[in-house]
């Protein structure tokens, strides 16, 4: 224990080390504050839109209520769907800046509505967000490199190494203690602000522990790399160079190469195809004999078979039937589209086993439920809600039941999807093994060199 | 002058002897080559896809059967944002912007199906393009190669030796700078060749090509002089390396991320949903064409009746429903435009703030030059949206006009009748052609950033000369 205290004294006397730790803490605190603020802003936007939508709906009820036609009600009523950020989203804002988290839908064909985007400035989205996952994935390794690149070589270059070796308590323990203390402080610089942020955000304990474990594992991985590099016995300059090259490859180059490889190997059938086909079907319906359309619709909705046959003029039930048929006929394409996106995501996560930089980013976003999986589950929730909407309006439309003003309040309300994120245990095990392997090899080599 | 050359040559020989330097330079060249090939391939794929979609959309639109023109208004049209070959050099915002716009009556849809929406988060790690190599990786390589140019001489004690033998401070400083600049030129070469080639493919015009080129030359020159400067002040090579890496991480990784985040926070944009709701509300306040007692549309009807000198809409020589559709679309589109203009204004204010931060971080300035020159920036995207909207308005009004003239009011109000007009009316309508922002406009957009880069370069040149003159004090 006294040895550790000596190390601590040595450490706080080094201005560079202290400065590095302070800078990293400030960056983490700032990132957490920004994340919390952004989450609060997104919640406020959702609440604001909810009020607007409610007012809009009551105006609509007043305007069309007296006539009491469910067709108009279903046609003109937009319903607000939203995807509030999870309690852990502050740490990894993920794709939430470019994927919409508010969407208005109505009981018409969903596939023509589902892909609308929100307004954002693409030039500001280009470099990515500044959140804790960025500080962790990109910046923390740089600080570790600064603090650990001259672990052994620094002593050798200042001529103290021989002296240290001759000391009675010499051995590998000294370096492990030194490296351990420094990386523990780096870990604390990131983890403490994260935990504080999680407490403010009232995040679930398991998730917070998962996040802390991720931070710890990533710091361990880079510490192990530093140890291994130090064990080869180059000078401090070469060590720094080698470690930085590893950083450039792991954080900048390899992920982009993986991105290229994945988007090449899994071509996603363009979502455009779905929309083009959908439009063709929906608008083509005006040219199709009405009875044929109704027969097709009754195939999946036999409960409306017995309702009154169509007359010669326009009827809402026919209109809503062909809109739904449009959705039905692209269902297979939609499933493929969704499946391929998930396949890409699974491959990217697979890359994360080998590249902890990619993996930690993916795992943080999974923890925050802010990645493309979260977005797809929001889309699923919209789809469920859309079905509920149709089912709500159908009885009025098919039975020609009046739809007075009071009925507008009966329409189903959207419920935000449950948290679908989670902790990637298998990832963590793999990285723990990877770090242990690298670190172990480093220690073994070091021991051989020093002894 | 010859002494400067001698120093540059000897430094060059030292670099060549340094195996790590040669290997890292070779790796970098390999990487930029890969980036070029990949970016070109990617461009051809994306461009091919969009062209196919566009011609398919044009064909299906033209192939629509005889119909009521208002059905065609709802059927609508699709336009796709074409890519220019320069996107292979710098794709800019391409991955984040929608590539398809659905044009229909009464509504202004957002452009959708951006790459980000069908991709994994990996896309946020950046894309391997020639521009990325030059903006982010090249400075790093220059740091690895050049951090020791003067610091090492000082460490070895050769610096004072040279100076005492009559080499002046500026000769020393600029000799080293020259060597590093030549290396930078060599690194730049493959990207520059690809840039020039793509520029001819994109018919970019020499003005823009030259501007982009100048931007990158200035940018790498800033790093070159900066590296030699830091190396001159560092007591040891190690210090220089650490300091330079910190500078690089600050400028190339940290600032580009934090600046947009703060700007988006300082100037938030209106959401799409609120825009839609507000437009709808304002329209309702203006008038409802379906309401027979609506004051606005009553006044409109009176005006129309008066101008034709009749007393009933049934007596008009044109179809009154068509006139109503024309008026309604004119009103909605004016509102769409007002909101779009406001939104674009907000986004430009954000972008201007970002350019302001570019004063502090040259990487942002060079990104501006590169993106705006290549025509892959926000403005080019907005130009697409604006032209798409103009095309939509023209098409919808063309169809409304047809409803007013080709159909009679009596037929059109008869619900039991099927009113159709010949499909020739849409077959003959001209296709959408996107015109990218003009060269002058793009040059205007990028020139402030070019000025920022030149300013940085000038300041660093001055600082370099000043510190070079003070080098000789080391002897005393």
TrEMBL record, chain A:
* Superkingdom assignment: Bacteria
Q: Name one Pfam family in it.
A: DUF3526
Keywords per UniProt: Membrane, Transmembrane, Transmembrane helix
Question: Sorted alphabetically, which InterPro entries does this protein's record hold?
Answer: DUF3526
Q: Does the keyword Ion transport apply?
A: no
The question of whether Manganese is a record keyword is answered with no
Q: Where are the transmembrane segments?
A: 184-205, 211-234, 241-262, 426-446
Q: What is this protein called?
A: ABC transporter permease
The species is Asticcacaulis excentricus
Q: What is the lineage of its organism?
A: Bacteria, Pseudomonadati, Pseudomonadota, Alphaproteobacteria, Caulobacterales
TrEMBL record, chain B:
Task: Supply the source organism for this entry.
Answer: Asticcacaulis excentricus
Q: Name one GO cellular component term.
A: plasma membrane
User: Carries keyword Transmembrane helix?
Assistant: yes
Q: Which domain of life is it from?
A: Bacteria
Q: What is this protein called?
A: ABC-2 type transport system permease protein
Pfam families (alphabetical): ABC2_membrane_2, DUF3526
Where are the membrane-spanning stretches? Answer: 21-40, 128-151, 178-199, 205-229, 241-259, 449-469
Query: Keywords on this record?
Result: Membrane, Transmembrane, Transmembrane helix
Q: Which InterPro entries match?
A: DUF3526
Q: Which GO terms describe its molecular function?
A: ABC-type transporter activity
